[in-house]
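Entry for 2'-deoxycytidine-5'-monophosphate complex. Fields follow.
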Amino acid sequence: MGISVAIDGPAGAGKSTIAKIIGEKFNLMYINTGSMYRAVALKAMNENITENNIDDLVKIVESLEMHFEEDRLFVNNEDLTDMINMPIISNNVSKYAAVPEIRKILVKLQQNIAKKFNVIMDGRDIGTVVLKDATFKFYLTASSEERAKRRYEELISKDIEVDYDTILKDIIRRDYIDTHREVSPLKKAEDAIEIDSNDLSINGVADKMVEYINSKIKND
Ligand code: DC
């Protein structure tokens, strides 16, 4: 039987870095669902389509063929990974991710990938909606200040000019939208293991998860 790992949590909790490590360790395909919402936001913004223009948004989403190669997202065969991680997309994506019609299409796509491959998927609604029956579910958290600090350091290391206070404000605003939207708000699945990464390194979090997965595999 296939295995699937769901990782949810707020922006900047370290989900994607951890998912890559665990994915390599257990030979799972890594699906970064946030990048799929980001790609929709990018395409919509390029065409000046707002989150209120549902018909045009649906047309856009349906015209996008998305697939992952390692941790990179290809959309209609173009690698959009760098573009979708720019701050302008981070600042606007939550509005688009709150549109139920977009979510419906992307969730179906994500579920279809998980039917074909052993996956590790990260996002906001993976354990609660996309992979309700995931073999393993984790919920990663950290304080907003710690998450802002990590995002700041990550962007600076990529030579992207940012300031900490703006990032912190943006994280708090995105948390609010992600946890208060009507459809699939960010929340911990009841059966998810919660890991607070405030005082843990990336490897510390990964070690905890590997230990948990191995102990379950051994006991089942
Ligand atoms: O994880 P991220 O920052 O790349 O996510 C981008 C946006 O998409 C963020 O506003 C949360 C949203 N998102 C979502 O609503 N559901 C998911 N499964 C993944 C991301």
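NOTE: Strands lie at 4-8, 29-32, 66-69, 72-75, 78-79, 119-123, 136-141, 193-196.
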